[in-house]
């Protein structure tokens, strides 16, 4: 069997940074970060305790954001005296209202809920995770046994006294000096955090995680990737500089994309992102799965659909369920579905089929970097699982709750419509040889595309190296455009002027 071709693609423009992980030309994971809304997971804040809630065994912490963060009692660092106490630890004995506390964000704010935070701070490097308040030495379970033993010996030699250290999967094949360099970087970062926290007033941001592109290279890009393609020169330089310090042997795998056709269009990523948001996903045999997110959990239903099988009903159902297990695992990873997930497989009478399906589903989930746990498949065909929920999934980023249906359905957010429309216009311009274009767009999106004094339109023209004229027309769908004419600059300009006269 041929080895899997694994690639990372990073596309950045003035609106978003998008990182795609592609396996055998198929989109496996997608991460999106809007330029004006960076992820805060991993950030360290000096917060102030706003409320202590004994009944919830938790407290709310003001970290300077719109919503207070949530700190559970198990995430509170306690003293040695408290640790030795035989009585259960209570949140009201550990935290007081108005107290300053150094915390780290472990989960993004979602919906009406604020960020989840912890006082057990950890700092991630390329090979190591430093835990200043811990005292353990751990090695990634994903590593081969021999490699684990070797790296654990390395860890014993460098682990700081009274600090915890975890050796990451990316450390496979690393030398002792590589780990030492990574540790020194993390210790300097921790000293900077302590110094800034001592000099700051709460609430205040003390330490900010890397932006999405560099964070993904640090945490995910490894020897099993064939290449990394990036279309942003500034981020390309930053990533190359980072790899020069950490993994110089990876630099040859990094390519700066210079083609006029957008990177995600060239490799069919945009269309795969759009299809990944569909409620219904078809299987190879003709069956399908339906994915329905709710507030409490995500429900996934498996159906035979068009597939009628060739031998018996039992085999038809079993084959459909096996295909569905692979696709469900892929969709959970692609959509970054977290929390409780319930999969309604088609009922199977044969207990051996249930056992084989359970094993196949776990095998399919093995390549997912996010931790999950599956409960055995019941006689009714139900599989319950949990998956760690750290940040908003792609559906939450790209879509907003419909004001008409009050959350029972989804529509693209206005910002998503605007951004996608600009990309469609740009892709159309660069893929056509003509010099100038005249488009009609809906008035609701005209301001966003054109901008005050036409500055956004000028940026679009500069990037595409084409002349673009735009007129408003309410008959055009808000997420689309209508080409009026294309040709030379002189000809298109004349038509534009005449059209504007008739409109006026």
Count of strand segments: 26
Helix content: 25-40%
Helix-strand category: alpha+beta
DSSP helical segment count: 15
Shape: globular
Radius of gyration: 26 Å
Main sheet makeup: 6 strands, mixed
Calculate the terminal CA-CA distance, rounded to whole Å. Answer: 66 Å
Order of strands across the biggest sheet? Answer: 16-17-18-19-21-20
* Residue share in β-strands: 25-35%
Mean pLDDT: 88
Low-pLDDT parts are none
Structural description of this entry:
It is a single chain. By secondary structure, the chain is an alpha+beta fold. Helices cover 35% and strands 26% of the residues. The chain contains 15 helices and 26 strands. The protein has a 6-stranded mixed beta sheet, covered by helices on one side. It has a 5-stranded mixed beta sheet with strand order 3-2-1-14-15, sandwiched between helices. A hairpin with a 6-residue loop joins strand 5 and strand 6 (69-72). The longest helix is centred in the middle third of the chain and has 24 residues, at 176-199.
List the helices and strands and how they pair.
Layout lengths: L5 E7 L3 E8 L2 E9 L9 E10 L4 E5 L6 E4 L7 H5 L6 H4 L5 E8 L8 E3 L4 E2 L3 E4 L5 E3 L5 H14 L5 E4 L8 H24 L4 E4 L4 H8 L7 E4 L2 H14 L7 E3 L6 H4 L2 H8 L3 E3 L5 E6 L4 E6 L9 H23 L3 E6 L6 H15 L6 E3 L7 E6 L6 H5 E3 L8 E3 L1 H17 L5 E6 L1 H8 L4 H10 L2 E6 L8 E7 L1 H15 L1
Parallel strand pairs: 1-14, 6-8, 11-12, 14-15, 18-19, 24-25
Antiparallel strand pairs: 1-2, 2-3, 4-5, 4-7, 4-13, 5-6, 7-8, 9-10, 10-12, 16-17, 17-18, 19-21, 20-21, 22-23, 24-26
Helix pairs in contact: 3-4, 9-10, 12-14
């Amino acid at each position: 069997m041929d080895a899997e071709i694994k690639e990372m693609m990073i596309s950045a423009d003035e609106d978003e940074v998008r990182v795609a992980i592609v396996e055998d030309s198929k989109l496996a994971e997608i991460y999106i970060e809007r330029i004006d809304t960076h992820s805060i997971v991993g950030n360290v804040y000096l917060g102030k305790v706003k409320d202590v809630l004994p009944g919830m065994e938790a407290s709310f912490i003001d970290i300077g954001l719109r919503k207070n963060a949530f700190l559970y009692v198990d995430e509170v660092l306690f003293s040695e005296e408290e640790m030795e106490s035989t009585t259960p630890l209570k949140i009201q004995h550990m935290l007081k209202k108005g107290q300053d506390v150094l915390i780290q964000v472990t989960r993004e704010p979602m919906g009406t809920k604020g960020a989840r935070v912890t006082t057990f701070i950890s700092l991630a490097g390329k090979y190591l995770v430093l835990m200043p308040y811990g005292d353990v030495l751990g090695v990634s379970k994903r590593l081969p046994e021999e490699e684990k033993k070797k790296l654990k010996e390395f860890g014993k030699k460098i682990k700081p006294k009274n600090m915890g250290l975890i050796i990451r999967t990316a450390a496979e094949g690393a030398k002792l000096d590589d780990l030492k360099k990574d540790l020194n970087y993390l210790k300097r970062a921790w000293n900077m955090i302590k110094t800034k926290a001592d000099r700051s007033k709460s609430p205040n941001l003390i330490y900010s995680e890397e932006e999405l592109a560099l964070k993904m290279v640090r945490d995910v890009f490894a020897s099993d990737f064939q290449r990394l393609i990036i279309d942003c020169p500034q981020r390309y330089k930053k990533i190359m500089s980072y790899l020069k310090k950490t993994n110089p042997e990876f630099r040859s795998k990094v390519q700066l994309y210079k083609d006029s056709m957008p990177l995600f269009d060239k490799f069919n990523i945009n269309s795969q992102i759009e299809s990944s948001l569909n409620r219904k996903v078809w299987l190879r045999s003709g069956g399908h799965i339906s994915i329905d997110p709710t507030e409490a959990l995500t429900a996934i239903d498996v159906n035979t659909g068009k597939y009628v099988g060739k031998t018996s009903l039992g085999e038809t159902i079993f084959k459909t369920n096996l295909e569905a297990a692979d696709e469900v695992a892929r969709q959970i990873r692609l959509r970054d579905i977290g929390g409780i997930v319930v999969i309604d497989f088609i009922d199977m009478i044969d207990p051996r089929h249930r056992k084989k399906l359970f094993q196949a589903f776990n095998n399919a989930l093995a390549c997912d970097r996010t931790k999950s746990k599956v409960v055995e498949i019941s006689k009714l065909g139900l599989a319950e699982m949990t998956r760690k929920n750290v940040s908003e999934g792609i559906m939450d980023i790209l879509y907003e709750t419909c004001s008409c249906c009050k959350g029972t359905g989804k529509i693209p957010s206005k910002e998503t419509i605007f951004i996608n429309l600009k990309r469609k216009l740009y892709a159309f311009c660069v893929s056509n040889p003509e010099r100038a274009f005249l488009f009609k767009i809906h008035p609701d999106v005209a301001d966003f595309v054109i901008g005050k004094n036409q500055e956004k339109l000028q940026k679009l023209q500069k990037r595409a190296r084409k002349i673009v004229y735009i007129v408003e027309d309410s008959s055009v769908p808000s997420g689309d455009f209508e080409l009026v004419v294309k040709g030379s600059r002189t000809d298109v300009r004349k038509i534009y002027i005449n059209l504007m006269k008739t409109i006026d």
